Amino acid sequence: MFVFVCMGCGARLTTPLSQVALPVHAHQKYGNGIQLPVLMESGTFAVDPEPWGPPWRTWEETDQNEAAARGIHAPVYALSDGPPGAIVIAPGDTRGTVLIPERGGGYCCGLDGADGPNMACEACGLPVASRIDDCSLWQAVWLAPNAVRRRTVDDDPAPLSWAELMAEGKGTPPFEPIATWGSRLGPDHWWSWSPQWEAAVGRALAHLLAASEGRPVTVPSGLIAEVFQRALDALLPAGPPARRAVLAGPGRPAPHADADILLVPAHPQTGETWTPVGPAASAYPVPLPFGVWLWLAFPEPHLPVPASGGMPDGVLRDNPPAPRPPHLFRADSGTFQHTLVRLPAVHSPWLREILENLTQYMRARLF
User: Fold this and answer.
1) 80-129, pLDDT tens digit by residue?
2) Least confident of 1-5, 239-243, 275-279, 317-321
3) 55 cis-preceded (ω within 30 degrees of 0)
4) 106 DSSP assignment
5) Measuring CA to CA, which residue among 233, 172, 206, 211 is closest to residue 333?
6) 133 and 139 in contact (C-beta within 8 Å)?
7) Distance from CA of residue 200 to its chain's centroid?
8) Which residues contact residue 309 at a Cβ distance below 8 angstroms, ignoring those fewer than 6 apart?
9) Is 228 left (phi over 0), alpha (psi -120 to 50) or beta?
10) Mean pLDDT of 45-61
11) For a Cys staple, 117 with which of 127, 132, 163, 272, CB 3.0–4.6 Å?
12) How far is 165 from 174, CA to CA, in rounded Å?
């Protein structure tokens, strides 16, 4: 367990926190005017190993060799010159900080951190963090890595084993209610595909394209086909023998040796992907957040639940299932692009062409 303290005066800035993997959707921008919830679970923090935040440079201002050294193999709109290692926490886990009014970048519906750190240490005034709560952004506080340091306060328990994670069984539902800011009659709500799923599939789709080697890819039928197959069929050529992607992971049957690609879970605490043993160990692993993978691998059925309140014992309440979204699934384009430009396979001309035509695919509602 750690607390983060001010680099200037040593004042404590957070509650005790345990480290977890950086969420795939950490930098996602979702829709327009959308009210997104808090990014991090209370009591946790994650570290972004890449530079994040202002100042920014356009691709034209960036040396190609420098970009390649940073693991970026294709053009992007802009690169951050901020320090790497930003720490993200839940806003409620901050202590001893105050907002800096003159750095209130954003203000469509909240703060977006565009002007740099907008929170200061209450004790000494050093800018230490960026509060993010503008519309369409996940609510979070990003601690500046050059303004804070971590201090150990207690031993962290060992990361959960895969068996322990499976026992907890906490899946991420694919549908959820979405709210907007600014309605005259209060927030508007509608059921949609989960933003977390759209980001998770955006990252996985980039890996699936890299693993395809320019051949068609098939995925199992059901929900997994609903979120992947339409985009795979549109982005990959028809004709050559298809590569087969299957779900694999703890609690699942061992994948067959003829599986070319494995959709596997990433550990929510360490970020490490599950690795098979045996003949399938050579297959290309495509990471999915554990909660998304768990829902795909072990879908939760809609069952009647015991009634609460004054209902007689044994009575079941048959609640209706969550409404399905009215539109087809679309992967998150920003997460897809962020992932694909960091895969060496993007040097292939056909993958580079997909990147160059990404706006066209967005208009076709693949993203």
Assistant:
1) 998 999 999 999 999 999 999 888 766 678 888 888 899 999 999 999 99
2) 317-321
3) yes
4) B
5) 206
6) yes
7) 6
8) none
9) alpha
10) 92
11) 127
12) 19
Token pair of 193 as six digits:
């595909």
280 in Cβ contact with 248 (< 8 Å) = yes
Encoded amino acid at 144, one letter: A
The DSSP string of 111-156 is B--TTS--EEETTT--EEEEEE--TTB-BEEEE-TTTEEEEE-SPP
Q: Could you tell me how far CA 146 lies from the centroid of its own chain? A: 24
Token reading at 110? 């909240």
**Residues 233, 257: contact at Cβ < 8 Å?**
no
Give burial (CB, 10 Å; 0-12/13-18/19+) of 243: buried
362 near 333, Cβ under 8 Å?
yes
Q: Output 96-100 pairs: Cβ under 8 A, ≥24 positions apart.
A: 96/6, 96/11, 96/12, 96/13, 96/121, 96/122, 96/123, 97/13, 97/121, 97/122, 97/128, 97/129, 98/122, 99/131, 100/127
Rounded distance between C-alpha atoms, residue 264 and residue 248, angstroms: 5
Q: How remote is the C-alpha of 10 from its chain's centroid? A: 32
Residues 6+ apart with CB under 8 A from 105: 111, 112, 113, 114, 115, 116, 118
Residue carrying the six token digits 């067959």: 256
Q: Which two tokens stand for residue 312?
A: 């007689």
